[in-house]
Amino acid sequence: MRASRIAAPLLVSTAALALLAPAALATAPSALAAPPVPAAPPAPAALAVSPAPAAVPAFSVTATVETEPVGHSGDAADDPAIWVNPSDPAKSAVVATDKKGALEVYDLAGKRLQRISGDHGNNVDVRDDIVVSADDEAEGGDGAMHIYRIDPATRQLTHLKDVATEVTAHGICMYRSPSTGKLYAYPNSPSGRLEQWELKVSGTGVTATSVRLFDVGDEIEGCYADERTGALYVGEEDKGIWKYGAEPGAGTSRTLFDSTASGGHLTADVEGITAAGTHLFASSQGSDDYTVYDRSSGAYQGRFSVASGSAADGCSDTDGIDASDKPLGAAFPNGLFVCQDGSNSTPGSSGNQNFKYVPLDRVTSKL
């Protein structure tokens, strides 16, 4: 998030970025047994994203739904996560952060179903029925993950456990390993550190074990772990998107997926990252739009913005995004794209920040 910047912008060329390697950390978290961090990670390969000639021209889409505004004024809304109801997809929900003091749950009409006060989560993610928020104000400012379970019948969250992190958790993403079935969360911080935790949830009990810890670089926040490809994408806000392996044994080897420098397609800050169907999306906050890539090859496919329409205004200065290609009832039969709006105005509600819902096929039909 632009307002929370700690490190000053650093302008470097794409060639220079390709030579950067994450700094190694000398120790694992003291309170938990974790594998040693490699002392000398290999240098990243050249920029991995394909050139743009095949990309479609930039285009805009409009939202059909917006959520009720978050409860706090100013820069408060940040990150959404789509939970798909396995028994009735039309009754799915969007869990979203009001980082000034609440976690919000909305239905697909944008109506608030639940507000959990006291959670200052900056980012949130969901896998299956487990929801994790990253709260950098918890633990006296040392940061923690708040772990919840969502009830499919009520779409209400129940708090299970808080887990203190080594990285002052600010951003978060989750991953269910397709090879082992294990569940992981990746809290990260504006200091550039990222930690991987294995989460075991049984009933109301949670066991959390730190399994990887390393430095990415300068300020990071947005991340996405892809069960389809086994890749972990991490946004270094002023530089671009790094691609790592998502499994805990993947170490710190990485490639630069896309860049904010010359030859790249992103404009700082790099914020939310997500995927749906055959596409990967990233929030290019400085240009008020979203870049799109082929999920398998990484080829750049184009960019789009969310403009004002008849039902809602557009999204600008976006932090978090999420997307799903699952059919979600009559309102979103071909999936959903959600973006945080940094300036909520008419049409629709106005005032405090909120989130906009775009039918996913309004985007994918133009790619």
Secondary-structure blueprint:
Layout: H1 14-17, E1 59-62, E2 65-66, E3 77-83, E4 93-98, E5 102-106, E6 112-117, E7 123-127, E8 130-135, H2 138-141, E9 144-150, E10 157-164, E11 174-176, E12 183-185, E13 193-202, E14 205-215, E15 220-226, E16 231-236, E17 240-245, E18 255-259, E19 270-276, E20 279-284, E21 289-294, E22 300-307, E23 321-324, E24 336-341, E25 354-359, H3 360-364
Parallel strand pairs: 1-22
Antiparallel strand pairs: 2-25, 3-4, 4-5, 5-6, 7-8, 8-9, 9-10, 11-12, 12-13, 13-14, 15-16, 16-17, 17-18, 19-20, 20-21, 21-22, 23-24, 24-25
What is shown here, in short?
This protein has helices at 14-17, 138-141, 360-364; strands spanning 59-62, 65-66, 77-83, 93-98, 102-106, 112-117, 123-127, 130-135, 144-150, 157-164, 174-176, 183-185, 193-202, 205-215, 220-226, 231-236, 240-245, 255-259, 270-276, 279-284, 289-294, 300-307, 321-324, 336-341, 354-359.
Fill in the keyword field for this structure.
disordered N terminus, 3 helices, four-stranded antiparallel sheet, globular, mainly beta, 367 residues
- Percent range for β-strand residues: 35-45%
What structural class do the secondary elements suggest?
A: mainly beta
Low-confidence stretches: 3-46
Mean pLDDT over the residues: 89
Shape: globular
Topology pattern, helix = H, strand = E: HEEEEEEEEHEEEEEEEEEEEEEEEEEH
Tell me the radius of gyration. 19 Å
